Amino acid sequence: MTRLGKYPAGLTSLFLVEMWERFSYYGMRAILVLYLVDVVANGGLGLATADAVAIYGIYTASAYILALPGGWIADRFWGSRRAITVGAVIIIIGHILLAFAGSSAGLFLVGLACIAIGTGLLKPNISSMVGELYDKDDIGGRDAGFSFFYMGINIGAILGGFIAGYLGEKWGWHWGFGAAAIAMTLGLVNFIYAGKNSLRGLGGAPQPHHHPDSGTARFDHLTTVILCGAAVLVIGGMMMAGWLDLSSATGIAGAMGVLIVTVAVGFFLNIYFAGDLTPAEKRRMIVLAVLFVAAAVFWSRFEQAGSSLSIFAADLTDRQLGSFEVPASWFQNLNPAFIVLLTPLFAAFWLTAQKRKWEISVFVKFGLALILVGLGFWLLVPAARMAAGGAKVSFLFLTGTFLIHTCAELLLSPVGLSTFSRLAPQRFTSQMMGFWFVASSLGSLMAGLLATGMDTSSPTSLPHLFDRLFWGSVIPGVLLILAARPLTRWALGGSEHLPAEEVKH
């Protein structure tokens, strides 16, 4: 334990690595679209806004969906530590390429691809290493640890947005991308140092998996081939039928949704049927599938922050503070700021709940998160009605929404990381962490579809939009809470505590 109290020594090191990685990711992301649409004379690429937004969507979706092969490489060959190290190096190379890309589209695309690949290697595996710090049965400690780790993500997001964003806009795009490269380098140096100290012995190469017999091995391999072939046939058939358009950036972005769903379903079925799982592990996989769907619904609402709520802030919110007009983009910093403020409270609660033997089902936590994210939009319904009358509304409405959404996020995201790292079959832990991040990717795409009805030039539609977002969150949230007890009894034997022989990591 560290002097931070009830956290393992290695958690602080992983916190810092994740903080610097998220600095680089969110710092670069903050200026990416601005760089893409800026004129060539200013060092940008001069793209149309539609193409720039599509490239942004493809990149963010790719970074998360690549977490699946990133987890597979760690589980099968490298182990988490080597995957993180290689991923960090590739990310650094990608940011350096962006810093020197200027108006070279080719160099820019190679750099962006490097960052997506590196993120896919790093993101699921660093979460897996956090899970390795805890025994499987330490539910409260694990939830608290992931909450603390999650705070690092948001501190990095705040610093990256402010520093890299400022440098990129005021000094030049290459300065912003360069700052992201330096941040990731700091994270890599910290990780290498921690590997010789607080993280010694963690994240090593996996033990080879041997099938029970030759017949099982043939069945597993055949199942994998059939599922991969089916995925290719589905996507190929849709392309031939003209349902997928790959001739433009916008069309490719639309196809990403089909790809994500196909890959997610195929990946899950492959592990379920060809992973040599025990009956208990298969039931836990069903639990993780339910949580995956709930998380995708949650992120489709939560990610409205970058679409409908961003437009609401820019066009319909009174942002005047005396003689100063608050930039609309600053509202995006409310969420990470609230994360930093509230995380110690949530972490302390999880530890207290475990000490007092309060068993709060993960289904209840996710259900409450869905209800809260819906309530955040319900708060905006009266504000939308005021805006429909032609008046700009107080910024306190959006502030309240972001506060409620942050509480919902802390009930779902760190708890989801904790639960996936604990309930996943041991040899598939990193891959299942990648599967968790795919839910975020799918939810982000769904968020864009849900926001298509946002028309700030005619705000009379806003109350209906926010009502739909409210009910579409609250109803599944209530259903999940009602299903918590029967699901826990069927899939987990009535308790989330694992059998004694599986407790030690």
UniProtKB/TrEMBL annotation:
Residue spans crossing the bilayer: 26-47, 53-74, 83-101, 107-126, 147-167, 173-193, 222-244, 250-273, 285-302, 334-353, 360-381, 393-412, 433-454, 469-488
Location of the protein in the cell: Cell membrane; Membrane
Main localization of the protein described in the UniProt heading: membrane
GO CC, one annotated term: plasma membrane
SUPFAM superfamilies in the record: MFS general substrate transporter
GO MF, one annotated term: peptide transmembrane transporter activity
Biological-process GO terms, alphabetical: oligopeptide transport
Record membrane topology: Multi-pass membrane protein
Keywords assigned by UniProt, alphabetized: Cell membrane, Membrane, Peptide transport, Protein transport, Transmembrane, Transmembrane helix, Transport
Keyword Transmembrane (UniProt): yes
Domain Major facilitator superfamily (MFS) profile intervals: 1-489
NCBIfam families from the UniProt entry: yjdL_sub1_fam
Family: Belongs to the major facilitator superfamily. Proton-dependent oligopeptide transporter (POT/PTR) (TC 2.A.17) family.
Protein's recorded name: MFS transporter
Originating organism: Paracoccus litorisediminis
Lineage of origin: Bacteria, Pseudomonadati, Pseudomonadota, Alphaproteobacteria, Rhodobacterales
